Amino acid sequence: MTRLARREAYRAAGRALAQYLGGRQGPGNVTEVGWNRGDAIATGQTHEYKLNVPITQGTFLTATLTWDRIVTETNAGGAAGDGKMQSTDGYSAVAASHGVADYNLFVYKGEQLVASSVASNTGVEGDNIEHLYFPVPAAGVPGDYRIVVKATAGVSATVAAPPYALAWQTTAFPVVTTTTNGGVS
User: Fold this and answer.
1) DSSP at 53
2) Cβ distance 175 to 72 under 8 Å?
3) CA 67, 62, 22: angle at the middle one, nearest 5?
4) Phi, psi torsion values for 85, nearest 5 degrees
5) Which CATH number does the domain 3-169 belong to among 2.60.120.380, 1.10.260.40, 2.60.120.260, 3.90.950.10?
6) Fewer CB in 10 Å around end: N or C, the chain?
7) Model confidence over 121-177: pLDDT tens digits?
8) Which residues lie below 8 Å from residue 35, measured CB to CB, with a gap of 6+?
């Protein structure tokens, strides 16, 4: 690994650590850096994460949403899967016609839509990730900006809605330095 690659790896690890240290939060009032996982919502329902901090114009907001893809197993010869992973097994994502869950990601300032994974085409049918990264267009007081997760496609009666995970930040990550022995300061 080159010196530059090693430096970038340390920076990425520092950013990941800062994101993690933001803590699990929400839905509801949240801080400028955080994450949540494990929630599932029904079609048409939303979860809102209200940024309970002042935000200055031009601050970059990033939000990433992902959820489990439902995958089926087929044994050699086309038989239904037995739950044991073998080299002859086949795996495929459940087709949209079978009711695969889909979530979308939105950012609002008050009632005005500011950004959307639908409008920006970051969400493609069948994908299980949505991502937004943009400078906020106007300053806001605590509670002005909110991140909204919406379930836009349902699942069949035989397939439960998968949980989603969301991570966000509205400020530059604090600088996290590592020591020569691998510690963090």
Assistant:
1) S
2) no
3) 80
4) -80, 120
5) 2.60.120.380
6) C
7) 544 556 788 899 898 899 999 999 999 999 876 555 555 678 899 999 987 444 455
8) 19, 20, 22, 23, 24, 25, 165, 166, 167, 168
